[in-house]
Specification:
37 strands, elongated, five-stranded mixed sheet, four-stranded antiparallel sheet, mainly beta
């Protein structure tokens, strides 16, 4: 038997590496292990490294459509997203409605998410903002936004919305509710035709050099009065398609704050920061000043009784003065004390026996003015905070109070009892209401105008 000799393996000797080489080797090995560990966990190189994924994911809001008009008990939101880079998987997902995070109400799947939101808890009447944020596992983020309108489903619903070119400073609805006048900070008056809650712009009236602060329609709807910071009262003839300026009435030494036509349309009352009430005779071809009554505080609101013989004047000091227009001279009949801040709104009942007053002190008061000495019949808290706006229905049956905090209350003018309440987004600046219309019009400093339908009556 042949014996195979053993093979002797000789391993060449290896010189021990230097200390610097050993440190470099360890650092390289550590970095490699960390990279492999990160990739194994599904993460990717961060931005700035040679292999970083810098492509953000894409988001598409399928529902609701941009500017959609929504009503009902729930809102469905559908979202699609994709990633063209190496991020692929979604690492974080947010759905923000009016700035609040409602991601927990959504079911996510590979390429999107869907969920439902209860309007009564999370949506505000009018304009709402939806935002979706997605971050992939490479750290790239994408955001999509959408605006939609919630019409509501209670006694007060949104019929329409438009945007003007600037802050809304005054509003008035014609007696039949078919024409809306909008005063702006730029001195213009815009006329809109109101049809079924929808607004169509008709004309822009340019005459004031500064902001428009008061508007009023004549009882027949054929004349519009506008007053402003420029201290003038301007009359506009609306009888033809082409609106014409009828007159410019000068006399006030400070801005005009209140305008009111007498029931027969023959007299216009104007009040302003100069603490005067001026009565203008409209029976002649060109109006003339009939009388001037000076007060102690600026005039903030005006209202005629149905007989045209009594004019109520609200003042900045909280008092309400009843002016007697019987005869050639205008005299003060009596003063009603009770409010502690400026009087924002006034309205007589149809028979002239009751006067409703609203104030920045957050209250409305109902007065019996049928006797020789007026008496207070009722008082209610109208607003959540002081220093707000208020308007009354011209037919005396209902009134609306609206605050800068967005709180709106609809009242029975006879009992001063609340018929309904709602919260609107943003700070309400001005409100308009007409006797023969179910609509309320709300104006905002942002230039937005809401047309609301009030579905209740006393």
């Amino acid at each position: 038997m042949r014996v195979v000799p053993a093979v002797i393996l000789r391993v060449p000797s290896v010189r021990a590496p230097s200390l610097g080489a050993r440190i470099t080797h360890c650092l390289t090995l550590t970095a490699t292990l960390l990279l492999l560990s990160a990739c194994g966990a599904g993460d990717f190189p961060k931005s700035g490294s040679p292999n970083a994924d810098s492509t953000p994911p894409t988001i598409r809001i399928v529902q609701p459509l941009d500017g959609a008009h929504f009503e009902g008990d729930s809102l469905t939101i559908d979202i699609e997203y994709d990633d063209q880079g190496s991020g692929v998987a979604v690492n974080s997902f947010k759905v923000l409605v009016n700035g609040q995070d409602y991601s927990g109400a959504f079911d996510q799947h590979n390429r999107g998410a869907s969920g439902r939101i209860s309007p009564s808890q999370r949506l505000t009447l009018g304009e709402n903002q939806l935002a979706v944020e997605v971050k992939d596992r490479a750290g790239n983020m994408a955001r999509a936004e959408r605006s939609f309108l919630y019409a509501g489903n209670g006694w007060l619903t949104l019929a329409g919305m438009v945007r003007t070119g600037g802050p809304v400073t005054a509003l008035a609805l014609s007696p039949n509710g078919k024409t809306l006048a909008v005063g702006g900070a730029d001195g213009t008056v815009r006329l809109w035709d109101l049809d079924g809650g929808l607004l169509n712009e008709r004309a822009t009236l340019k005459g004031h050099s500064r902001a428009v602060t008061a508007l009023a329609f004549a009882p027949d709807g054929n004349t519009l009065a506008s007053g402003g910071w420029d201290r003038t009262v301007q009359l506009w003839d609306l009888r033809s398609a082409e609106v014409k300026k009828r007159a410019v009435l000068e006399g006030h030494s400070l801005k005009v704050l209140a305008l009111e036509f007498a029931p027969d349309g023959k007299t216009l009352a104007s009040g302003g920061g100069d603490r005067t009430v001026r009565l203008w005779d409209l029976t002649a071809d060109y109006p003339t000043e009939r009388a001037v009554l000076k007060g102690q505080r600026r005039v903030t609101s005006l209202a005629f009784a149905s007989n045209g013989k009594t004019l109520a004047q609200g003042s900045g000091d909280g008092t309400v003065r009843l002016l007697n227009l019987r005869g050639a001279d205008v005299t003060e009949q009596t003063a009603l004390a009770g409010h502690t801040m400026k009087v924002l709104a006034l309205a007589f009942s149809p028979n002239g026996k009751r006067l409703i007053t609203g104030s920045a002190d957050r209250t409305i008061r109902v007065w019996n003015v049928s006797g020789s000495k007026p008496t207070e019949q009722a008082i209610s808290e109208a607003l959540k905070e002081a220093g707000t706006t208020m308007t009354f229905a011209t037919n005396g049956r209902t009134l609306t109070s609206a605050g800068q905090d967005g709180h709106l209350t609809y009242w029975d003018a006879a009992s001063a009892q609340s018929l309904g309440e709602a919260t609107l987004p943003g700070s309400i600046q001005v409100v308009a209401q007409a006797a023969e219309s179910p609509y309320l019009v709300i104006g905002y400093d942002s230039g937005k105008i809401y047309v609301l339908h009030a579905g209740i009556s006393p």
